[in-house]
Amino acid sequence: MKIYLVGGAVRDSLLNIPFKDKDYLVVGATPEIMVNLGFKPIGKDFPVFLHPKSNEEYALARTEKKIAAGHKGFNFYASPDVSIEEDLKRRDITINAIAQDSEGNYIDPYDGISDIGKKIIRHVSPSFQEDPLRVLRVARFKAKLPSFVIYDETMMLMKRMVADGEVECLSSERVTAELMKGLDQKDAFSMLEVLDECAALPIIFPDISFKKHNRAVKKLFDLANEAQVSNSKRLLLFLLAVNFEDNLINPTIEVNTRIIKLTAEINKIIVLLQKYSDKLINFFTLNVESQLDLLGVFDFFRRPHRVIECIDLISLVLQGRDLSNVLLLEGRSLILEYQADLLHNKITVDKDQSGENIKRALYRERLNTLSKLKNRYS
């Protein structure tokens, strides 16, 4: 039985990139041997185990065979006679198909180390095209490694997979997971460029025409980076909520839930943006009662981050639009000051009163606090 370090940990160490997780590959073992050694089985589709002390993942070497469409359409064969080279061959790109043994020696049958030196993202074998999730994975790695170039033949295979409808067979959970990982990278825009080049972008974001909107999208991503508010959730909201034709919040947002699986929170923010963008822009000019009612709609007193996230998104979209953005930022300042005041000066009410009386008293106190703060701006 031999154990190898594989995958991202090997790749990132060769690239001098910090990494946290380590994955191990076990050659020459059976599930029974692993269990007898104290490993805990967790794999549903193939044998994966957790180390009894470190809790790190150890997978038995395996091969796979395509039997149906999509990323789940595979039969796996795990056996002690599967070699390290056979296991590495099933992996997506060469820089992910490098292993390291316990003595520090590299096993690199597909020239991944050479491709790291040449800064190339290249598929391991023609079986790359059997898993459509790899279209998104390559796009994600381009965002992670923007100085790398995608091998011409790899891009050709990606285009073929998209044209054959394979990407549309992916589960929305897997598509969204890869998107969020890519949008978390420093050069997230590169992922969109790759998806556009292989024609997958219109499938995932049908409202974005890169021929028409690429500059607008790039500008928004750059502004988000400059403002240090970019993260995967925020950038996904940009892509879904912005009408890039007019650089405004899209009033008729329709998300293809068959392709993208959104969290309940992102869905809620999209609905709020659709309904209340104009009121948020003009928040500072509203009377105090309307301001407090709007904050209530955003569930401000339990989730104060929500209204600020919406304001920040609208602010970036309106960048450079004189009065509208000035008003929006004044409203943001007032809301943040209000939040700070509520944290430092807790509102107390007589709890012996009825529920309705408590609500009315709380509303009056919140209204008074907001009125005093707003008067400071007058």
Please describe what this structure looks like.
Helix content is 50%, strand content 11%. The protein is α+β, with helices and mostly antiparallel strands and 378 residues long. The chain has three domains: 1-118, Beta Polymerase, domain 2 (2-Layer Sandwich); 132-204, Orthogonal Bundle (Hydrophobic Seed Protein), CATH 1.10.110; 222-378, no CATH class. The protein starts with a strand and ends with a helix. It is elongated, with a radius of gyration of 26 Å. The strands form four sheets. The protein has a seven-stranded mixed beta sheet. Residues 148-208 form the tRNA nucleotidyltransferase/poly(A) polymerase RNA and SrmB- binding domain.
Structural class: alpha+beta
Tally of individual domains: 3
The number of E-state strands comes to 13
Low confidence ranges: none
The count of helical stretches stands at 16
Task: Indicate the percent of residues in helices.
Answer: 40-55%
Assembly category: single chain
InterPro entries: CCA_bact, NT_sf, PolA_pol_head_dom, PolyA_RNA-bd, tRNA_CCA-adding_enzyme
Keywords: ATP-binding, Magnesium, Metal-binding, Nucleotide-binding, Nucleotidyltransferase, RNA repair, RNA-binding, Transferase, tRNA processing
Organism: Methylophilales bacterium HTCC2181
GO molecular function, one term: ATP binding
